[in-house]
């Protein structure tokens, strides 16, 4: 990956909770040094190798509201950046934001992309570690972190993440509230990616 990406990021409390349960490099088996880097949970709204930061800023709607993100399934992918991920429900608000940004960047000639939109990656695992390692990571998550709900009558599925305990009891997240939009320079190893700009979404007033 090389270029700029626009991310929808959970509110700070939910961000910390999700980060707590993301898989770390396993101690019991050897894996590539580039597998299991520390990542920020997010939904990629658009990426571009051509766009400037100004073009990305222009593409963001002038008025933003918190975007609800609902988890659907834990999945194993065939790409480093989609090794293990949670697919996300295509809500009206999320799709409208994505479409607005993509259209604006297209008009700017930025050739944006957003593969497998919308999803939240859980782990990046190198191709050299293979599908077996990705499946193992997903299975380990299911065993200790992921609660998979029954399939609904409409065929939809739901998952929740066990994010530890609090004074109120077990904390499980089946969704998050997207309250920040980040512009990130994604060049080189994941640990070298740079957050260039953060926009806090205006909260809805009841």
TrEMBL record:
Residues annotated as transmembrane: none
SUPFAM superfamilies noted in UniProt: LigT-like
GO molecular function: 2',3'-cyclic-nucleotide 3'-phosphodiesterase activity
Pfam family name, one: CPDase
Signal peptide annotation: none
InterPro entries on file: Cyclic-nucl_3Pdiesterase (IPR012386), Cyclic_Pdiesterase (IPR009097)
GO biological process, alphabetically ordered: cyclic nucleotide metabolic process
Superkingdom of the organism of origin: Eukaryota
Name of protein: 2',3'-cyclic-nucleotide 3'-phosphodiesterase
The organism of origin for this protein: Suillus luteus UH-Slu-Lm8-n1
């Amino acid at each position: 990956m090389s270029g700029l990406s626009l991310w929808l990021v959970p509110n700070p409390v939910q961000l910390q909770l999700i980060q707590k349960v993301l898989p770390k490099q396993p101690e019991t088996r050897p894996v590539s040094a580039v597998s299991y880097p520390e990542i920020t949970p997010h939904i990629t709204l658009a990426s571009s190798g051509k766009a400037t930061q100004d073009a990305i800023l222009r593409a963001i709607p002038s008025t933003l509201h918190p975007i609800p993100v609902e988890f659907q399934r834990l999945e194993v992918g065939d790409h480093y950046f989609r090794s293990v991920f949670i697919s996300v429900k295509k809500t009206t608000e999320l799709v409208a934001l994505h479409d607005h940004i993509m259209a604006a960047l297209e008009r700017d000639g930025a050739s944006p992309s957003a593969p497998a939109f919308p999803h939240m990656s859980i782990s990046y695992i190198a191709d050299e570690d293979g599908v077996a390692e990705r499946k193992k990571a997903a299975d380990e998550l299911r065993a200790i972190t992921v609660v998979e709900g029954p399939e609904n009558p409409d065929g939809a599925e739901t998952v929740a993440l066990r994010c530890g305990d609090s004074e109120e009891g077990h904390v499980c997240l089946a969704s998050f509230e997207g309250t920040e939009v980040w512009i990130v320079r994604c060049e080189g190893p994941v640990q070298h990616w740079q957050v260039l700009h953060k926009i806090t979404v205006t909260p809805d007033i009841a």
